[in-house]
Design goal:
One of its GO terms (cellular component) is plasma membrane. Belongs to the G-protein coupled receptor 1 family. It comes from Heterocephalus glaber. By secondary structure, the protein is mostly helical. It has one domain: Rhopdopsin 7-helix transmembrane proteins (Up-down Bundle), CATH 1.20.1070. Helices cover 74% and strands 3% of the residues. It is built from 10 helices and 3 strands, in the order E-H-H-E-H-H-H-E-H-H-H-H-H. Helix 1 runs antiparallel to helix 2. It is globular and about 65 Å long. The mean pLDDT is 82.
Length: 309
């Protein structure tokens, strides 16, 4: 399918063209990427080694940190390196790999957020059935379905990209490859592909966002039946989840629910989704989760004591 195209590489214009501003981009993204790695790896290490963090919610938080790390890694290192180069070139094959990996881990993160919302619904609204519904086996099956679903979604993106012939211009006014950006260089009618793109990404994001918000409305409504202390704890958890849902889904809805038309703020929205959410989402969950914070303190206090000996 790739033989249809005359384009073998693309030129990424990145975020900035000014040399001074590119240095600022380099420093800024290096800092945020290292912070993302450090924060997520700390969460992964803490949950993996702490016996107290064995609930389904912590299992999903572990998976969210892992997917966020991979999502950020799919684009951030390239941005950091490109900020030091005068001309940034990405081959056609590398571009396709980037499209696949970005959509795979982005979609996986969305599925995990949905699973976390379902977990909260069962825990608060169906507490007697919670151990049965959210057993280890059930969580493993749900996570496997999330991985398969993400693979199907990202594979569809690649098939749509490879179905088009490319010729002529090859300069992408962005910092990474995405299908909606590649449509501009196709030497064919892209109406159906764009329609499929909106259906595959935009509609799914929008419907998932609406259903999740409706889910949390039901949860918040059911808190009236709980005691004050239980309600306060559940409310704190739900607020952090709602913040993460908004941060995750709003950028996706903005980017993928409209035709292939670029806006000036597209880059900033994409930057926030690719770099910001992998850093903020696990951080928000952790800061509002006493069990994780306590386990993290114990783990690193033991680490410091062992190192001092």
């Amino acid at each position: 399918m790739q033989l249809k195209t005359n384009v073998t590489e693309f030129i990424l214009l990145g975020l900035m063209q000014d040399p001074v501003r590119k240095k600022i981009v380099f420093i800024t993204f290096l800092f945020f990427y290292l912070a993302t790695l450090l924060g997520n790896l700390m969460i992964i290490k803490t949950i993996k080694t702490s016996r107290a963090l064995g609930s389904p919610m912590h299992f999903f938080l572990f998976s969210l940190s892992l997917s966020g790390t991979c999502l950020s890694t799919s684009v951030a290192p390239r941005i950091i390196v490109d900020a030091l180069l005068k001309k940034t070139i990405i081959s056609f094959s590398e571009c396709m790999i980037q499209v696949f990996s970005a959509h795979f881990f982005g979609c996986l993160g969305i599925f995990i957020v949905i699973l976390m919302a379902v977990d909260r619904y069962v825990a608060i609204c169906k507490p007697l059935h919670y151990p049965t519904i959210t057993s280890c086996r059930a969580c493993a099956v749900l996570m496997a379905v999330a991985w398969v679903g993400s693979c199907v979604h990202s594979s569809a993106q690649i098939l749509l990209a490879l179905s088009l012939p490319y010729c002529g211009a090859n300069v992408i006014d962005h910092y990474f490859c995405d299908l909606e950006l590649l449509l501009e260089f196709a030497c064919a009618d892209t109406y159906m592909v764009n329609l499929l793109l909106v259906s595959n990404s935009g509609d799914v994001c929008t419907m998932s966002f609406v259903l999740l918000m409706f889910n949390y409305v039901i949860i918040l409504h059911s808190l009236r039946k709980h005691s004050v202390e239980e309600g306060r704890k559940a409310l704190s958890t739900c607020i952090s989840h709602i913040i993460v849902v908004v941060l995750t889904f709003v950028p996706c809805v903005f980017i993928y629910t409209r035709p292939a038309v670029t806006f000036p703020m597209d880059k900033m929205v994409a930057v926030f989704y690719m770099i910001g959410t992998p850093l903020l989402n696990p951080l928000i969950y952790t800061l509002r989760n006493t069990e994780v914070k306590n386990a993290m303190r114990k783990l690193w206090s033991k680490k410091l004591i062992s190192d001092s000996r």
